[in-house]
Amino acid sequence: MENGRKAICPFCCLQDGLRVEGGGFAPLFGEDSLLHLDYDSTQEVNQGSLCSRGNSVIEFLEHPQRLLAPSFRGKEIGWEEAHRVMKSKLGKGISVLLGPNLTLEEAWLAKELVNSSGLNRIAHLAPDDGEAFQVLRWLGKVGGPGMEEIERSDLILLVGDTFMEHPVISRRVLRAKYAERKNRLLVLDSVKTKTAWFADLHLQPRPGTEGFVLAGLAKVLYKSKPSYLAPLFKKVNLERIAEITGLEKGKIEGASSQLASARQGVVILSNLWGRVGPVGLAAFFGSLLASLSNGKFLHLPVYQNGFGISLILGKRTTGPLLLEMIQKEGAGGLFVVGLDLLSSLPGQRKDIGLKKLDHLWATAIFPNRTTEISELVLPAASGLEKGGNLLYLNGDLREMNTVLPPPGGAEAEGEIFQKMAKDRLASPDEAKLREAVRGEPYPEKEIAQRAQALWEEEIGKGTEDRLPFYLIPSAHPAHLGNGAITGRLGWAKKVCAEPHIELSPVMASKLKLEAGDRAVVSSQVGKETFAVLLNERLKEDQVTVPAHFPQVRRLFPWEVGKTLGEFSLRPQRVKIAKSKGE
After folding, report:
1. What is the mean pLDDT of residues 416-437?
2. Measuring CA to CA, which residue among 580, 498, 579, 505 is closest to residue 542?
3. Which of 125, 372, 395, 540 falls 20 to 30 Å from 435 in CA-CA distance?
4. Between vectors from CA 526 to CA 522 and to CA 527, what angle results, nearest 5°?
5. Distance of CA 223 to CAs 44, 218, 242, 261, 290, Å?
6. Of 320, 379, 348, 400, which is closest to residue 565 (Cα–Cα)?
7. What CATH architecture applies to the domain 131-300?
8. C-beta of residue 317 within 8 angstroms of C-beta of residue 121
9. Percent of the chain at pLDDT above 90?
């Protein structure tokens, strides 16, 4: 399919290239009307490889449940009426909350709309990666190594279950590992995952302490530079870290020596909903560790363009803090853009006070839990149906091609912002976008103060050990993020339609549970019932659960960190009992 239209996969941060053919007006079943996908081996990013999500792109585009027309209070309306509703409410305390899959131009226009139209506030919500985004903004760390650089590395440290969360990158990592006998792959993860199978050294700390392990590794390598961090490293004690993480001091020192001897090393942080903890510390010390070992650091966010949107908005309030302000005020309105908010949040707050607001608007590709309670629902275009730029992992811009027009009455969010404005908003050119996402580090004194505050906040948190098990979020390769999009797709429905827990056969026997039984999982904030699967790789006190479902996220407390203002998520202590219905 040499003439296929080049496109970028609309799902995760790897932004894999692909080709789309057909979809035009032609006789039924004609070659030009049948929409189909092909692999683009010329793409530097993925060289034609796609994960199961990428292979679902055509189903995603053609899905019969797509939203096709605006609705107001449950009644379908036209766009002219929708725009009249929005313009009549502008300036009346309406805040804007952006999701992670907008283009850079759309984030820019949203910011301009807020600045020019008297809207109240704007923020970006990224529950999985918000803490890491804040830390990387302090450091001015925008770009990491490209795929070719990863392949040339002689040592790679993976933090998290990278191969399950972003399967396509496994090809690059394994090429690097097997290029020469002396090359090494280190994995830092509390669970013996399929990623860890390939590790030459698997550092397996207590769940939720990966950030402290990275601090210990950096402590061993730190000599005197950068000097402004010397007060911070005086607080980092290897014996205390060994106590927190359960890793022997000698094992931490041995791993540090391997990092120090690398010719070209890479540290890759891959996190989803509370798996790696504390993720702010992991981002800070992971980045620092890479620089101390003459390597490079790469953060793999969950979604396609989250860090780019964060950079475009700049120093503004965070998504969690905006939500807390709205809940406290109990009035005004909220415009949720490109995000199923209610499927994304922790805790047991059913609608987080959204029903009490004067106005709740939402854009969405599919109906979801947020659109169910929204006064105004606007059908949105997907990434393949709108042009624009994304921030790529290496810090460069990547332009998306429009391969199809949006279906029905769906519109790109950028067009929605333009029509909301009293006067047409000025779209940014490439130079303005590059300047906005360039990344300037904060002053060294401010970085040092913030880093010390973050360390003291995290080291001061006690560990809840009254409950016997660690509930550890896991990734399923057919799903992404909160599952609001992927949960509609056929393959995800086939292989992971509902959440389940996995626990060791030994512990299952002690609890009198068998595969297929249902068990009640109780955390400090709630309880849910899940089907049981067995996993021989798990320790007896470990329970994993795919993080792509609202009922899983309800087991994690609503906790916003003081230093970063983002959701503070990590594995939770729980108890498990056989469901009484069994």
Report:
1. 93
2. 505
3. 125
4. 45
5. 38, 10, 20, 15, 14
6. 320
7. 3-Layer(aba) Sandwich (3.40)
8. yes
9. 82
